[in-house]
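Input (structure):
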C-alpha cells in the first residue's frame, strides 16, 4: 500500500500522474480530422503529389547521388 504524503510537495509528486490525464493531447487515431475541409471549400493543394515527385526532389535539392 502506498504511503500517505506528508508534505505538499510530496502530494504534488504523488498526484502528478493523475493530473497529467486532464491535459489535452493529440489522440493517436485522430489523424487529420481537425484539418478536414468543409464541404464546398476547395483544397489549396492536390491531395497527392504527382507521380515521380519524390524521385525528382532529389535532383531539385542538388544531391550528388540522386538515385
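Output (sequence):
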Amino acid at each position: 500500500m502506498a504511503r500517505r504524503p506528508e508534505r505538499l510537495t510530496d502530494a504534488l509528486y504523488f498526484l502528478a500522474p493523475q493530473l497529467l490525464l486532464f491535459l489535452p493531447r493529440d489522440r493517436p487515431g485522430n489523424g487529420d480530422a481537425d484539418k478536414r475541409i468543409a464541404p464546398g471549400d476547395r483544397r489549396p493543394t492536390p491531395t497527392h503529389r504527382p507521380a515521380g515527385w519524390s524521385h525528382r526532389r532529389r535532383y531539385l535539392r542538388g544531391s550528388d547521388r540522386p538515385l
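Notes: The chain is about 30% helix and 0% strand. Residues 8-20 form the longest helix (13 residues).
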